[in-house]
Amino acid sequence: MTIPTDPSYGYTEMDSEDARAASRHYWDNEAPAYYAEHGEFLGDVDFCWCPEGLRESDVRLLGDVSGRVVLEIGCGGAQCARWLATQGATVIATDLSAGQLAQARRLNEDTGVPVPLVQADAITLPVRSESIDIACSAFGAVPFVADSLALMREAARVLRPGGRWIFSTTHPFVWCLPDAPDANGLVVFHSYFDRRAYTEHSAAGEPLYIEAHRTMGDRIREIVAAGLVLVDVIEPEWPEGHDQVWGQWGPLRGQFVPSTSIFVTAKPH
C-alpha cells in the first residue's frame, strides 16, 4: 500500500486567502506542463467533463446552448469555452490563474476560435447578477476553493431564473484512497469525514497546492443553501477500452470506485 509520508504533504485547515494564493501560484507555474501532459486528451476545442472522457457532445448536460450566454468558471486553457462557442453560445471564460489564461490566449490564436477571457476569483465574479443562462466548470475552481458554499452562492447570483449551474469535481469517496490508479489505490487509508484540505507545502511551510474536500452530503447542502435545486448527480463509470491513466484515475481502480462526480443544478424560476 502506498501512503503519502513526505512531510511536504498533509491535511490542514485552509482559509480563502491562503487557498487563493496557493492555487494562483501553482497554476501560474504548472499551466504549460499541464497542457503538455493532458492537452491532446482534452482537445483544444472540446468539452471534456472528466478523466473518464465524458464529453458534452455526447451527454448534453448543458442542453441546447445556441443563443445562450454561458459562463465557464475556472476555464484553464478554455477548451470547453471554445467548444461552446462553436455550438452558437455567447461565452465568457474566467480563471484565477494568469498562467492558465496565457495558455488560453495561445490556444485562441492557434485554433482560430477566440473566446473572451477574464481573470477572476470564482467566489467574487465580475459578472452582473442574473445575466447568465448557463454556468459550468469542468474540474475548474470547485476543488480548489476553501469556501465552496461561497462559490455555489456566486454561481446562483449570476444565473438568470431557470438557469443551470453544472460542475464536475473529484468524487468525495476518492478522499479516502491513496493517490494511485493501481491496486495501491484500492485501500482506504484516510477518513472520508476529514474536511481539512489536502496541501503541498514548501520547506518553509508555505502552501503551494491545495485541494479542498467535501462529502457528498456537504455538496448537496451547499447547493441547497445557495438557493439552487439539485437536478442530477452523475458518477461516470470507467469506459471500456479507455486505458489512459490520469493521476489517480485509471482503468484498474475505475472498475471498482467512481473518481468523478458531476452535479447538475438549476436556479428556480
TrEMBL record:
<dbReference type="InterPro" id="IPR029063">
    <property type="entry name" value="SAM-dependent_MTases_sf"/>
</dbReference>
<feature type="domain" description="Methyltransferase type 11">
    <location>
        <begin position="71"/>
        <end position="167"/>
    </location>
</feature>
<keyword id="KW-0489">Methyltransferase</keyword>
<keyword id="KW-0808">Transferase</keyword>
<dbReference type="Pfam" id="PF08241">
    <property type="entry name" value="Methyltransf_11"/>
</dbReference>
<dbReference type="InterPro" id="IPR013216">
    <property type="entry name" value="Methyltransf_11"/>
</dbReference>
<dbReference type="InterPro" id="IPR050508">
    <property type="entry name" value="Methyltransf_Superfamily"/>
</dbReference>
<dbReference type="GO" id="GO:0032259">
    <property type="term" value="P:methylation"/>
</dbReference>
<protein>
    <submittedName>
        <fullName>Methyltransferase domain-containing protein</fullName>
    </submittedName>
</protein>
<dbReference type="GO" id="GO:0008757">
    <property type="term" value="F:S-adenosylmethionine-dependent methyltransferase activity"/>
</dbReference>
